[in-house]
Amino acid sequence: MKVAVLRFPGTNCEFDTEYAFKKLGHDVAIVWHNDNALPDGIDLVVVPGGFSYGDYLRSGSIARFAPVMKSVSQYASKGGKVLGICNGFQILTEAGLLPGALKRNTNLHFISKYQHLKVVNNNNAFLNQYQAGDMLYVPIAHADGNYYIDDAGLEELKINGQILLQYVDSDGNVDSINGSVEAIAGICNKEKNVFGLMPHPERAIEDILGSKDGIKMLQGFIS
Amino acid sequence: MSAIENIESVLKSHKLSPAEYEHIKEILHREPNIVEIGIFSAMWSEHCSYKSSKKYLNGFPTKAPWVIQGPGENAGVIDVGDGVAAVFKMESHNHPSYIEPFQGAATGVGGILRDVFTMGARPVANLNSLRFGSIKGSDNINKYQRHLVRGVVEGIGSYGNCMGVPTVGGEVSFDDSYNGNILVNAFALGLVKHEDIFLGVAKGIGNPVIYVGSKTGRDGLGGAVMSSDSFTEESKSLRPTVQVGDPFTEKLLLEACLELFATDHVVGIQDMGAAGLTSSSFEMAGKTGAGMIMNLDKVPAREEGMSPYDFMLSESQERMLICAKQGSEQAIIDIFEKWGLDAAVIGEVTDTGRMELFWYGEKCADMPIAPVSEEAPILDRPTLRPSYLDAVNAKNISDYPVVTNQEAFEKLLSSLEVVDKAWIYEQYDSMVQTNTIKRPGSLDASVIRIKQNDKAIAMSADCNPRYCYIDPFKGAALAVIESGRNVAMSGARPLAITDCLNFGNPENPEVMWQFAQACEGIKEACATLNTPVVSGNVSLYNETNGVSVFPTPAIAMVGLNDDCNKVLQSSFQKEGNTLLMVGQTKGEFGGSLYIKELFGETTGKIGEIDYTTELRLWDFVINANKKGLLESAKDLGMGGVAIALAKMSAISGLGVEANIKLNNTNEIFDESQSRAVFEVAPEHVNDVVKMASDLGLHIDAIGSIKGDNFTLNDVSMTVKQLQSIYFDTFKKTIEQDL
Hints:
The complex is a heterodimer of chains A (223) and B (738).
Chain A: E1 2-7, H1 14-23, E2 27-32, E3 44-47, H2 67-77, E4 82-85, H3 87-94, E5 101-103, E6 111-119, E7 135-142, E8 146-148, H4 151-159, E9 163-168, E10 184-188, E11 194-197, H5 214-219
Parallel strand pairs in A: 1-2, 1-3, 3-4, 4-11
Antiparallel strand pairs in A: 5-8, 6-7, 6-9, 9-10, 10-11
Chain B: H1 7-13, H2 18-28, H3 34-43, H4 46-49, H5 54-57, E1 67-69, E2 76-79, E3 84-92, H6 94-99, H7 101-117, E4 122-132, H8 140-163, E5 167-174, E6 183-193, E7 208-213, H9 223-226, H10 247-261, E8 266-271, H11 276-288, E9 291-295, H12 308-313, E10 319-324, H13 329-338, E11 342-350, E12 354-359, E13 362-368, H14 369-374, H15 388-394, H16 405-413, H17 422-425, E14 436-438, E15 446-450, E16 455-462, H18 465-470, H19 472-489, E17 493-502, H20 509-529, E18 533-539, E19 543-544, E20 547-548, E21 552-561, E22 578-582, H21 593-599, H22 611-626, E23 632-635, H23 640-652, E24 656-658, E25 676-680, H24 685-694, E26 699-705, E27 709-712, E28 715-718, H25 719-734
Parallel strand pairs in B: 4-5, 9-12, 17-18, 24-27
Antiparallel strand pairs in B: 1-2, 2-3, 3-6, 4-6, 7-10, 7-11, 8-10, 9-11, 12-13, 14-15, 15-16, 16-21, 17-21, 19-20, 22-25, 22-26, 23-25, 24-26, 27-28
């Protein structure tokens, strides 16, 4: 698989993402925000975590105007797969590639910890190696992860099976740790080729760091 | 250049003495102008010149085969194998953080990160060591202290998180002695290949001097001088002297610098920290004996109407000064423009040995560099053994009423120094860069993997100010020992320290005595344990209205584990495993948490330090871990074996059944040194006992991991209750007024 990882000023998870995909045997190209085109022959675009443009004004709000994002939108509109992690999720909602918005966590603090997640829907490229109901353990690290969508939008997400992951406690009970509507941790678009989540699967691929649950997520895109 | 009117008041506002003024005139052979006064004042401030402390810092052990760069550069450097070096330093940002906690702490982190990446290293880990006053209670002081905790934590998080550097651990404690002066010490560590280390030097006549990074504003004007004075009620009006941080710009500066370092354009580079352009330019030229010309009108400015004085003394953040090779100017400017940063050629290296400053072509300062940077007055301040010591040393545990162990346990367990600080560390991204093996909250040292060679670096910041208060010499030595022991408990060999020496007013002979004693204690411990000092920082004048803080020499130890897959955790791993305790319990309660929490006092004496046993303990845990004989390890410190086992139990959710034979029942809270507990699988117990005994260490089986209850001698509690106290107390305390 050939993966393009975007790099904006202030991105800080691009090398973690590169390391994870390379460790899993894939090719990675880091793409500068000012580039007007994505590399040829790619299988996946990842918008990684960090603080693009300092997250000043609003998380992800400036990055969506970067030249490279035009190419990403075009790529997605042709069915190309796009994955936004953390700040990448925020950027994709700001760019209109994913529905909803990410607000400040309800406790107003940055939250960094290992978090239990539940797979809600596996009928998609991202989570096809998991079963619905599977429990995962993956790091989160964000200040603006409070997912919001209006009732009509939420209904649509449910009907289309777009809710992918929920935050849960260690017993598997839904637990909205940051205020997210229905404890949503990750979603996809209606066409199921654009994915966004606040947790960091690229940080969960090695036992010595605490979890390997991210491997099947990243590997899901092979198929 | 015009002479100064009303020189007395100018000297006073620059904290220069009449004697220093005479010395300045001798150096210049004339009267200084205001720019020159400003420069002398900054360079000779306590903060920049170490004039009170230098006498005692001389003689720190600084060498070992693995030390690549000792003190004197932006940060220390040690070898961590396979051509990789670790660059690290700890620094204080105490005064600014008390005045404006968010920005003070944030820029403290920004400053220490610049110290590390200016040497060519990519920062890979942050720690911090924080001291606050009392945050319990409803007095205005308590409320203000809670405000400070919230601000400092948010400030540290905002900067480190945005930089993408994980904050992997730290320590925080609380004592009334910090009510008027909190301590905010930030540590950063970076990795670099040996051949890619850069130094802060300017050389090569005609080489350009290039300013990069943020524009200069008036923020932080006179910050170094401010930090060189004690506090009064009016100090909060000094807010404008606190710098304002912009972590996004620093992230850009980091990436631009690393991109630049991969070229061969750079001769030397220095960050602009305290005293900004003044200290960076004088230090770079001072190290080589070169001279320098700078055109201050070429410095990128944030606002109009700034004077040469402002440019030289501003402490605006996120700036660097580069000495480049001739002809590389445009290539360097291009790199910084790519990252959206200013870069301007502002001067060049000369052979005059003088700093010549120009303002639109007119000379506005002309000073010999060596005397300014090297002839700062070295003071031999009077010292006097503090009068409080006799009284506090005379008391011992038998002078206090008897308390049941159960009552004492409940009180100590809920002490803010003991309980989990998730409320703090969850605000820090601790896992970015995907190397964090041992995270904050996991007790003892923090550990990161080195991706370049699959080894691991363990680090721990420690100091028990109560020990230092009752015995500054031994207290400081014990800070070195404890940080080393924490590192060893993860299976790593302790290699070197950085220190941050926080003390009160040096003009008080009793404070100066504490400082001198603590330095001697550090020297003894570092020499004996073979862990040299490679970098450090001194923060004096931590005094408000005449009250000085407890002597607080914070030590951060860095060690190396040869295998990142063999990092030892410090909480219980598995039910059924045996608990072994190594070391002797001698009835030590001097400066103990027990006396503090139960009786509100800091009293007693520190026992003899046994370096031989300490080193054997380190050897034991490192070697036993290499052989795969240990499941977890934890040093015994504050609150003794009872608190150590309780923490391990709370974190793992596993119960304990333990019984220890002691001379006095309360010795489950004793703080004797050179002790640790180990979790060992039943089949390895004999091997482990033999190994320890062969090393001459005292080892006892004290119990096992079992059930849902914590039971130690006459103390018992359900693990559930233990966890609720351990995990909930801090949040309840800190959020009580929200």
